[in-house]
Structures are given as structure tokens and as C-alpha cells.
Write a structure and sequence with these properties.
The chain is an alpha+beta fold. The chain is built from 14 helices and 12 strands. The termini are far apart.
Length: 393
């Protein structure tokens, strides 16, 4: 009974007007058309709403999966790195640690540390050259100008300390920090008969003192203090040195076992390697300043309350010689197996930059004379032209 009333009411709503009058056929068709159109619009709107909701859900799932996918991280990092220039990276490093600032001379140097002996590299054959090994490199273009077994492995002796200086500078950030000389370091340098600054057990020196002490008097005590300060031990510091050799691309022909230059069968490099180590050091502003210093006064010590005056005697001895320029950086070395050796950096009168490395001379003076001889023979524009036709040495 109730069901019939509902159907009756439904039909009445569709077939009659509000006042109860029956709809005509045309009125009924018009009303049904409006109803069907409205229902279609509502259905279409519902379908669109469902589609939009589905697409939104799919997008959220994809974004969530993308963030969770670790394989996307390298691509994002590569994109970021690709927008940073090498200069910007260097500036960021320098801002983080001012001791990494590039020297002014570095802007003139060739990129990288890869040099080779070419067919046009002059062979040094003159009997005037005392050193058994010799090399001259134009660091503006990376050309080896002249060589005398420059690609043979030698023991670099105290030239090793150029790399010690560079590695230390790259791992410190406070030149005013101090380190106290220890008995262990004293025993080590004494037992190996090393050159020293003259530090005694308990003497405190600034890190800046130790940098200059490592180079100017070739102080093994200062170098060992630096190694201990930076890495905790010489062994750990040597790992950093060999990592730097690998970074420079020299590890195939160079390997160091100590930070001083003590002779060891497994402690070696070529003159070409040493030239590139010196180039890397000259590219760093602080290393450049240390290598260029003629003299320096350390902080007070127990025996020297006014400090110890130390000097770079290679630079002092060569400064009055005619080298066609100015030698502005140098480090000497000596062990019996490599004789007197040295690596020096010169800026010519024409404004070009050169590095000279020699080894196995029988005296310091003969070593210096060989550097003078190489610079004067090959670095003037006239001499460069002559080399093409006649080897001056």
C-alpha cells in the first residue's frame, strides 16, 4: 500500500503541474529534456572530479617515490656542480680557508701538472754542468726546455720538504696556533743526523714559525712538528703527502716514506715530479711567501729569548748572480745517495716563469752554479732562438 502511494506521488510529480493539472505532451517532453540534460551535466562533473582526483593521487605517488629514490640524488648533485665554475669553487675554498689563496704568479702558469720530454727538448751535454741530473721547465706553457735525465728517479733528499710545506698549509687554518717540541721528535732528528732549526724539548713555536723553519734552514725538527700537529704522526702525515702526489697525477713515478727526505729505497721521484711539486707550492700564496723568504725570526725559545734567525742560503747565495731574472723561491737538499740537489723558481727579466731542478752535484756552490748556468743559457729570448739551431749546453 505504501509502495503504491510513493509511485503515485512520483508519477504525479512528473505528469502534473504543482496545481495538480496534467501536463500536455509538449510540456512533459520539455521537462524531461531539462531533467536529462541536468543529469548528464551532473554525471560529467562527477566523472571530471574523479579524473582530477585520480591524476592528483598519481602525481603525489610519483613525487613521493622520486624523493625516496636514492638513484636520483647523484643526478641532482651533478646538476648543481655543473653550475659552479672552477674559479667559483676556488673562491669558495679560499673564503673557507684563506691559507688556500692562490698566488699572483699562479694566473700565468699552465693548467695541471703533466709535463713530458718532447723531441725538441734540449739535451744538456756540456761538461760544465756538474750535476748528474738537471731539468728546466717553462711553467707558463708547461714545456720542458732542457733535460739531463730529468725523467730518472732519484732520492729528493730535503727537497721533500717542499711537499711537506704544501700539505701542511692545505691542512691548517690557524698560523698563530702553537706546537710544543717533544723528546720523541728530538730523538728522531738527532738519530738521523738531520738539519734542524735548533728547537729544544718544551720549546713552543707557532705554526707559522714551523712553516718557515721547515724551508729556510731545512729544519727536520720543524717539519716533524708540523707532521705531528697536522696528522698526529709522521706516518699519517706521509699518507697525506702521497695522496697529494696522486692528486697532482705524479704517483706513478713519485712516492714518499717520510716528511724530511731521509734516504729510503721507497722514497723517490723524478726531477720532473719535483718541478711540478714546486709549481703546486708556488701556486699557493702562503707557500710562495715562505719559499721566497731570505730570512725569518722565530718565536722565542728557551735558548734564544729573542727568537732564532733563520735564512734560505740558496737564495742568499744566488741573489748576486746573473740569472736573467730573479730567483724567488728555492729549496735545497742533500743525502749521500743524491748529492747536493735543489729546486728553484725564477721570474725572468722578460716576465716569464721557470723552474729548475738539479741533483747529484758534489757541493752546494756547484749546485747553485748549475742553476745559474741553466737560467742564463735557456731563458732569454735570444737564447731560446739559439736553442732551435744549437744547444748552448
Amino acid at each position: 500500500m505504501g509502495g503504491n502511494n510513493i509511485v503515485g506521488n512520483y508519477r504525479k510529480a512528473h505528469y502534473r503541474k504543482r496545481n495538480g493539472e496534467r501536463l500536455s505532451a509538449s510540456e512533459y517532453k520539455s521537462k524531461r529534456k531539462r531533467e536529462i540534460t541536468l543529469h548528464f551535466i551532473l554525471l560529467l562533473a562527477a566523472l571530471l572530479l574523479c579524473l582530477f582526483g585520480t591524476l592528483t593521487l598519481i602525481k603525489k605517488v610519483k613525487n613521493r617515490d622520486k624523493k625516496a629514490d636514492p638513484t636520483d640524488t647523484p643526478n641532482q648533485e651533478l646538476t648543481i656542480i655543473g653550475t659552479i665554475t672552477e674559479k667559483e669553487k676556488e673562491e669558495a675554498e679560499e673564503e673557507k680557508n684563506p691559507l688556500l689563496k692562490k698566488s699572483d704568479d699562479a694566473s700565468a702558469f699552465f693548467e695541471g701538472y703533466d709535463i713530458k720530454l718532447e723531441d725538441n727538448t734540449a739535451s744538456i751535454v756540456s761538461e760544465d754542468m756538474v750535476s748528474s741530473y738537471a731539468l728546466l721547465v717553462d711553467v707558463d706553457n708547461g714545456k720542458v726546455i732542457a733535460s739531463k735525465d730529468g725523467n730518472k728517479k732519484i732520492n729528493p733528499a730535503s727537497m721533500t720538504k717542499i711537499l711537506t710545506l704544501l700539505v701542511a698549509v692545505e691542512h691548517i687554518d690557524n698560523l698563530d696556533d702553537t706546537f710544543e717540541m717533544t723528546q720523541e721528535i728530538g730523538n728522531y732528528v738527532y738519530s738521523n743526523d738531520c738539519m734542524c732549526v735548533g728547537l729544544k724539548v718544551g720549546d713552543k713555536q707557532t705554526i707559522k714559525d714551523l712553516l718557515y723553519g721547515t724551508i729556510l734552514p731545512s729544519g727536520a725538527d720543524a717539519a716533524m712538528c708540523l707532521a705531528q700537529y697536522v696528522a698526529g704522526s709522521q706516518e699519517e702525515f706521509v699518507k697525506l703527502m702521497n695522496q697529494k702526489l696522486d692528486e697532482l697525477g705524479l704517483s706513478d713515478t713519485a712516492h714518499f716514506t717520510n716528511c724530511i727526505g731521509i734516504y729510503d729505497d721507497d722514497h723517490y721521484c723524478t726531477l720532473m715530479d719535483m718541478a711540478m711539486i714546486l709549481k703546486a707550492a708556488e701556486e699557493n700564496e702562503l707557500c710562495h711567501e715562505v719559499l721566497n723568504a731570505r730570512s725569518y725570526v722565530t718565536s722565542p725559545t728557551s735558548e734564544h729569548p729573542e727568537g732564532i734567525t733563520i735564512s734560505n742560503w740558496f737564495l742568499r747565495r744566488i741573489e748576486d748572480k746573473d740569472t736573467n731574472g730573479e730567483v724567488t723561491g728555492a729549496k735545497t737538499g742533500f743525502v749521500n745517495q743524491s748529492g747536493c740537489c735543489s729546486a728553484s723558481y725564477m721570474i725572468s727579466n722578460e716576465g716569464h716563469h721557470y723552474i729548475c731542478v738539479t741533483a747529484d752535484a758534489f757541493s752546494v756552490w756547484k749546485c747553485i752554479e748549475d742553476h745559474v748556468r741553466l737560467y742564463t743559457a735557456y731563458t732569454t729570448e735570444v737564447k731560446k732562438a739559439e736553442v732551435k739551431n744549437d744547444n748552448p749546453l
